[in-house]
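Hi X.,

You mentioned you wanted examples for the new student's onboarding notes, showing what a folding record looks like when two proteins sit in one file. Here is a clean example. The first protein comes first, with its sequence line followed by its structure tokens.
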Amino acid sequence: MVGLMRAAIFEALTLLALFCVAMPLKYTAEIPQAVSVMGPIHGLAFMVFLWFVIRSWAEGLINWLGALRLLVGAFIPFGGFVNERWLRQQMGEI
């Protein structure tokens, strides 16, 4: 479950970097290389997160509603941070 929490945070950070840094650089400063670099990094982070969600679901650590919640949250900026807090609550750390 710790790996899932870390993957959720990393995915959220890369999504924010893509939206708040790379895309503004592309459209305001005309530096498209920022998206060319950050896009694949975020894609890899999302795939790792997806793998952790599927693995945690298969192991019975989360149910299908929890998996759905995590996946929906991954598409929302700051959703990964909310997911990480929810995972901590599931583990009983908060």
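Then the second protein repeats the pattern, sequence line and then tokens:
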Amino acid sequence: MRQSSLVVVANRLPVDDTVAPDGACEWRRSPGGLVSALHPILQHTPATWVGWAGGTGPAPSLPDIDGVRMHTVALSQEDIRDHYEGFANATLWPLYHDSVEQPTYHRSWWEAYQRVNQRFAEAAAAAAEPGALVWIQDYHLQLVPGMLRALRPDLLIGFFLHVPFPPPELFMQLPRRAELMLGMLGADLVGFQRAQAAHNFAQLATKVLKVPATDRRIAIDDRVVRIGAFPVSINMSEMESLAARPDVAERARQLRSDLGDPQHVILSVDRMDYTKGIEQRLKAYSELIADGHIKVRDTVMVQVAVPSRERVEQYRILRDRVEREVGRINGEFGRVGEPAIHYLNQSFSRADLAALYRVADIMAVTPLRDGMNLVAKEYVAARVENNGALLLSEFAGAAAEFQQAYLVNPHDLDGLKLTLMHALEASPADIADRMRSMRGHLRIHDIRAWVHGYLTALDRTGSLAARLTV
């Protein structure tokens, strides 16, 4: 096996299995935040990406993608059910998002989580050359840093959590809390989206593991593990260029015409997930119509809800509730040819998303809890004319960076309604000032800045990080 000086370990490989016109199976680089983040640096060094290809059975042998070796980890149907759908997404995900839905605990899920994490650790150990940098991603693989250190103590190991890390009183509910923390502390650097998350983790290290900890360092055995906040970002120039393309601008004009050329278009783009605040947003919008503050003919709402984890019962139930509410609102307030809400339960290409971002006068990003929310950043990047208002939840990680957004508590329906009306009635000058400021921040704090900041902190000698971020 060819070994690499950089190994990225993530639940999924950065590829999509597509069918060519002649019926042959092709593997291509997939779009996505993590892929876009790491792709520029992966091209400058022998690199391997360790992950699951998306199917069951034996791991397929995949070609290199843009010079990056794909190392597949096999998952069985049982692994997917108990590790991915079970412990990762029915135990950890709701707990880490403030228990918006009640977490579920099953001992068999924990056993599967251990088993799959060990498989990923062994794959990373086999792929890494001596002294290599291994960067492990997210909540699916929290045990991998510790397992990998046991296998390969020569490696420089980083771990980054893309989702929120909960306050101690929530994390303490986990039956396997100590094991999960020890797994993460196998890394040399543990990164979070926000400083509060690092603080929560340090508090728990003292409480659960009885080890000395500050918000920057945790002493464990004979090592010191560094922790910190590294807010993830997007490739601003890529989204900006896409939004400025003539075909995307024309598509945006056509979409607005199809919507009836309203005075205002409110857009939301979410995964179908109970953390995204979709139901609260719909309720606030319907009450504004009922109160007469919004007229359907003048203001149109477009809700894109991308299908997500459809085999998980909580997500199926949520989809049913959302679709019932959309039907109720359209039935009560819509007219022939003029629905109050245009609801789209489907995925969109990057170009179509950019066109939607250009159409939206108001972008409503109101999750109940979110690690970052890159949709907010994509919208800001796409507003090439410095217009458009971002309505943003205080509980999204992006709120720490976008203080000029129209910030809102999505749990407060009256406050949500008031802030939405404030955004709708704001002067063009106020909107432009806010957007210009957010775009200036994002241009500096883009995806390359995130990667460079994390890798520089991980590799304090600077030699490997400099080589990887050319």
